Amino acid sequence: MIKIAVAEDNGFLAKAVEEKISFFDDLKFKFRGANGNEFIGKLEQDHNVDVILMDIQMPEKDGIATTEYVKNKYPHIKILMLTVFDDDDNIFNAIQAGADGYLLKETNPPELHKAITDVLEGGAAMTPSVALKTLNILRFPEKMTSDKVQLEEIKLSKRETEILEHLSKGLNYQQIAENLIISPSTVRKHIENIYKKLQVHNKMEAVQKAMKHNIL
Amino acid sequence: MIKIAVAEDNGFLAKAVEEKISFFDDLKFKFRGANGNEFIGKLEQDHNVDVILMDIQMPEKDGIATTEYVKNKYPHIKILMLTVFDDDDNIFNAIQAGADGYLLKETNPPELHKAITDVLEGGAAMTPSVALKTLNILRFPEKMTSDKVQLEEIKLSKRETEILEHLSKGLNYQQIAENLIISPSTVRKHIENIYKKLQVHNKMEAVQKAMKHNIL
DNA sequence: CTACCTATACGGCATTTGTAGTATTTAGTT
DNA sequence: AACTAAATACTACAAATGCCGTATAGGTAG
Fold this sequence. Notes:
Two copies of one chain form a homodimer.
Chain A: E1 2-7, H1 11-22, E2 27-33, H2 36-45, E3 51-54, H3 63-73, E4 78-83, H4 88-97, E5 101-104, H5 109-120, E6 125-126, H6 128-139, H7 158-168, H8 173-180, H9 184-198, H10 203-212
Parallel strand pairs in A: 1-2, 1-3, 3-4, 4-5, 5-6
Helix pairs in contact in A: 2-3, 3-4, 7-9, 7-10, 8-9
The structure holds a DNA duplex.
C-alpha cells in the first residue's frame, strides 16, 4: 500500500487529485495541507508517507521551498510536483529543490499511477513536455539566467516553425522542400509569410528574431 | 502511419526492435542501417522518415555523431536513442547532439509506442532511470566528468570576425561595406575566405559554426 | 630577401533568394 | 452550410549570393 500526501491550496483541485488516487487500490490518501506550512505541520505529526504530490503555487510557503525543507528532513520521501506551471524557471527550481518528478495537472490517472511507482522504484517521472524543457535547460544552460520579459507574441503555424528551424540550419529552399516532401514553391511561400509575420526581409534576420522570441 | 528507421549494428537486437514495431499497425518499419555511415547513406536515399531509433555503440560512426549529423540535415526527424548504455556521459552527449528521447533497450512495446507518439507531439521521452540521471546532471553540473570534445581551433582574422558579426545581424554585403568603409567586392572576398576556413557554403552555416566554436 | 598572410578591389556567371500575384485543397470553426 | 486559416503550388522578375579568377599593397616570419 503506497501512502500519499497532497500539498495543494485549491480545494477543488485537491479533491480531484484525491479522486484520482482513490481509483487505485494500491494507493492510499493520507492527508492534505492547504499551504506549505500547514502541510509541513501535518507531515511532522505523521511522516509515514511514501510519496508527496506537491503544488507549486501556494500561500505561506510555496511548493519549491516546501520541497527543499521536506527533502532535507525526510530525504526518503519521494516528491512529485503536480502543477500547471511548466516554465523553465519553475522546473529548474523544483529539480534543484530535490523533486523526483514533475507532472502537469492534466495528467490522467494511469499516468499518475505510473509516475508514482516509477519514483518509488528509484526513477524519475516527467510528462513529455516537461522532459523536453529539461533537455533544453541541459542543452542551453546559458539561456537560464536571463530573460523573462515577454515580447509581443508572434504566432507562427506549426509548418512555419518547422521551416524556420530548417532555415536556421543553413538549408536552402530545395533541401527543405525535399525534407518535408513538398515543392520548393511552397517552401518559398511559407518563408514569405514568415517574413511578413516577423517583419524581416532575409533568413538571418528571421532566425535572429525567432531566437529572440523563443520560437527556436 | 508513422515511418520508422533503425540504426543498430547488432542483427538480433535490430530484429527484436523491428518486431516490436510490427506489433502496432500505425507504425511502419522503413529500413535499418548497421552502422552510422550505412544508416546515413540509406537515409539520404529515402528521408521520408518520422522517427529514428538509434543505437549508441556502432562501428564506423557512433550513434551520437550520427544523431548530430542527421539533426543538422533533417531537423524535423525525431531521434530516440535506444541503447543499453545509460551512463551520464552518453546521456549528456546524446542530449547535446539533439536526441529527442533516451530509452533503454529493455523498454517494452507499449512504452516504445508511447515514446514515439510523445516525441511526434513535440515532447521528449525518457525511461524513469534515465530521467533521474538527467535530473542529477542538472542538479550537480560540476560533477560532469565529460571533457567536452575540444573542437579544432579555427582562426579568423580580425577583419573576418568583424564581417562575420555583421553577417550574423542580417546585413547584406552593401550594408556591411558601408559600415566598414570598404567596397562590396572586398566584403564578398572576405566572406569567401571565411567560408573556406569554416568549410561552409552560406551565411547561416557560417554563423552557426562560428557560434559553435565560440567565435561569435 | 622571400614566402606568406591579410586586406583591399574588380569582373563574370550561375544559383539562390526576396517579393508579388494568383489559385486550389483541406481542416477547423461558426 | 459558410467562413477562415493553413498548406499546397505556380509564374515572373529583380536583387543578392556563392564561387571563380585575377591583382595590388603592407606586414611579418623565416
